[in-house]
Amino acid sequence: MLDNLVILQYHHVSTKTPASTSIAPEKFAEHLAYLYRHYTVVDLFDAIKALRAGNSLPDKAVAITFDDGFDNILLNAHPLLQKYNFPYTIFINPQRIDKDRNQLTWDEVKQMAQENVRFANHTLDHLHLLNREYHNGEKESDAQWLTRIMYNIDQAETLIETQLGYSLQFLAYPYGEFDTFLAQHLEQQGYIGFAQHSGAVFSGSNFSALPRFPAAGRYANINTLKVKLNSLAMPVLDTNIHSPVVSEEGFPSTLKLTVAAADLNMNAMNCFFQGHLQDKKTIENLVEVSLPESFPLGRSRMNCTAPSKTQKGRFYWFSQPFFKANENQVFPD
Among candidates 280, 297, 294, 284, which has minimal Cα distance to 333? Predict the structure, then answer.
């Protein structure tokens, strides 16, 4: 038993959808066969409940998730998942269900809900949560923004509960975007947040923005996925990054992480920004990593890994996401 969970994120299972968010059915079948042989696939809701209660999970526990509620999940993924009796969770936009051509219908959702599938919140309509709206040329205030965003999220939760009879209060952030203020407010309202930066989860994780490993598109390669499936949640005690939203002034020039280092080989820790190895220095259980002078627009991340001292071949993994708006303060797709 172990205090560790890896969450996989998929979108499309098809060869006819955008390559960046798709995995071919044959490749998806390869993933599932590997999981069946080497891992324990667990229900996301049960796993999160166990971790929050301080209970251990089976070693090499993995949860499977999908974002957006596409109909090819039912057509191409669901039969494969049923073959292994794997539970999984789909984060849906209720306003799109039964309306958009490539989406599931509510009848299909209700049928799948009887077949080892849970459904959770991905907002009503997949909006950029961090974007501000303008009314009569005036930018909405922070209070107006939060009211609008929370209404959207709560309405989506209500629609799911009305259709399915339950409310998980799980929210997958569209585009993986969030800021600390929103995440903390959602946590106060009883929600658990799921993002799109990578890494494993443990009982000490930030449950307002849990990491998930993308496993489609350029991340579908089974050999690189094996390393991620074998990862351990890095026990970060403190960080100097208080919000993932990159500001023009006053944003830190380094990432500082304080970790519980008993089982980490600190000297072998490496950190990569957008895949590029970064300069770092370590002092006991503190690592300091250089951040870029200029961040790219949109979404980026710093991934840090360190080998375990006691579990051969396994790496602790931490990911810090960053979100940068364009000159008009709009976060791009």
Answer: 297
Quote helix, strand, coil % in the chain, to nearest 5. Answer: 30, 30, 40
Quote the domain boundaries for residue 71: 6-231
Assess whether 253 and 192 both reside in one domain: no
Statement to judge: residues 188 and 313 lie in one domain = no
Cβ-contact 17, 75 below 8 angstroms: no
> What residue type is assigned to position 90 of the chain?
I
The answer to whether residues 198 and 214 touch, using CB atoms and an 8 Å cutoff, is yes
Task: For 287-328, write each residue's pLDDT tens digit.
Answer: 999 999 999 999 999 999 999 999 999 999 999 999 999 999
Q: Count the neighbouring beta carbons within 10 Å of the beta carbon of residue 80.
A: 17
125 within a domain of the structure (yes/no) = yes
331 belongs to a structural domain: no
CA distance 199 to 2: 16
